[in-house]
Design a protein that fits this description.
Serine Threonine Protein Phosphatase 5, Tetratricopeptide repeat; 18 helices; 64% helix; disordered N terminus; ANK repeat; Ankyrin_rpt; Ankyrin_rpt-contain_sf
Length: 452
């Protein structure tokens, strides 16, 4: 038997140099011994520390590492597969058999995990197994999930906590009640479903309630082909009364729904449901007549109520339109009155101002006026000199004449301003301004004036 000689190590290169050359991809190491040493270095770096006695030379593994068993694309695909399996096991609901197996013995490692663990992109580890203390049947969050799952104890617990919960509607599911949801999911554990129906009826569930499609509990029982549920509703509740008079938005009665189900899928169950609903008019004829008369009376009352609502709505719309038109008329009248008053005030002020200017000029031509101008001339001269010094006005040729003109203009302007103020106050007393632009205020003013 031939024995395998141990490779000689190249003493010219150290292990660190070989490792650095291997990592950096140095192509300068090309000798056969150096390449063989680098291969052994990779195997030593990838393999765990030896815990068993060394093998015989014949059992020494070949230079091909186990990590090179798969191609790179296959390694990547296997890594994604392991990650998907781990994610599926995490979100999949546990079963009793799987839990028992996990509790007895741990899962064996996957044969590809070791080879893929040394790659650049290692596969994600599997999540830890669920604890044995966690319950596998979670408590329903709401009574809707309890009714859907057929959990009688939870339904009773929710009803004991709040009795009025039985009248709630599931708006996100077409306005269905708990009774309709129970009839909708009438399959599964029949005894549990019947107990839930009995609980809901005992707590006052309305069997004739119609959802957004107009279907009641019997519609859903017949549509879902639930014979025990249909029999319970007809025999133990008042739903039988509405089997022949209650219609959905497609004008289908529960009997029509049962007939369609029987024609679509003939079977013993669909035929039994159809026969059960067809015999209703013979089993409860008196109650049917009473309820039918009640339905006609309620329908007539609803139509009368709708007509009254339409009449009131029409009257309110008409009154709203008339009020809007009246408000526009009042606003236009108010604006016109304000314009007339403003024009009249401006006319009176202009006439009074012109009259005051004429009288002031006449008075300045009198002896008293001239004396007053002569008396006020020095102050005017000082004012003109100050303005000339500041550069506001140019220096006049005749300073005394300019001062006299300035005094007379100031007198005329003062007389005109005083007269305008007096006329404005007098006009305001005789023709007061509008106190408010609120239309309702003037409506009350006119109404009070008309009442007097």
């Amino acid at each position: 038997m031939m024995t395998m000689d141990a490779p000689r190590r190249n003493l010219s290169l150290s292990y660190s140099v070989l490792h650095a050359a291997d990592v950096n991809g140095d192509s300068s190491v090309t000798s056969k011994e150096e390449i063989h040493s680098m291969d052994l270095a990779r195997q030593l770096a990838d393999s765990p520390p030896p815990s068993a006695p060394p093998l015989r030379p014949s059992a020494v593994p070949s230079s091909t590492s186990s990590k090179d068993r798969y191609a790179p694309w296959l390694k990547k695909a296997l890594g994604k597969m392991h990650h998907a399996e781990a994610l599926w096991h995490t979100h999949r609901p546990p079963s009793a058999t799987s839990v028992g197996a996990n509790s007895l013995s741990p899962a064996p490692p996957h044969p590809h995990n070791k080879s893929l663990g040394h790659q650049g992109n290692p596969a994600r580890p599997l999540p830890p197994p669920p604890s044995s203390s966690s319950s596998f049947v979670q408590q329903p969050a709401t009574i809707w999930t309890a009714v859907h799952a057929g959990n009688v104890a939870d339904v009773r617990r929710f009803l004991d906590l709040d009795k009025h919960i039985v009248f709630r509607h599931h708006e996100a599911d077409g306005g269905k009640t708990l009774l309709q949801v129970a009839c909708w999911h009438g399959h599964g554990d029949v005894n549990a479903k019947l107990k839930i129906l009995q609980l809901l009826v005992q707590f006052g569930a309305v069997v004739e309630h119609q959802d957004s499609h107009g279907d009641n509990a019997l519609h859903w029982s017949a549509r879902m082909q639930a014979l025990p549920t249909t029999r319970f509703l007809i025999q133990d509740t008042d739903a039988a009364v509405y089997a022949l008079i209650s219609e959905n938005h497609k004008r289908q009665k529960p009997l029509d729904v049962a007939k369609l189900a029987r024609d679509a899928k003939p079977s013993m169950v669909t035929s039994a449901i159809f026969d059960l609903l067809r015999r209703v008019h013979r089993d409860c004829n008196v109650r049917l007549k009473i309820q039918y008369g009640k339905k006609l009376r309620l329908h007539a009352e609803a139509e009368a109520r709708a007509r009254r609502v339409d009449d009131v709505t029409h009257a309110a719309d008409t009154a709203r339109m008339l009020c809007h038109s009246a408000d526009q008329v009042w606003t236009m009248a108010l604006e016109a009155a304000e314009c007339v008053r403003n024009d009249l005030e401006a006319k009176v002020l202009d006439e009074g101002g012109k009259d005051a200017v004429g009288r002031a000029r006449v008075w300045l031509e009198t002896k008293e006026g001239k004396a007053w101008v002569k008396k006020e001339a020095p102050d005017a001269i000082e004012a003109i000199k100050s303005l000339v010094h500041k550069g506001v006005v140019p220096k006049p040729r005749d300073l005394k004449k300019a001062a006299a003109v300035r005094v007379m203009e100031e007198y005329v302007l003062g007389q005109e301003t005083n007269m305008r103020d007096l006329i404005k106050k007098k006009f305001g007393r005789e023709h007061p301004a509008f106190e408010s632009r609120d239309v309702e205020y003037y409506k009350r003013v006119v109404h009070n004036g008309g009442a007097r």
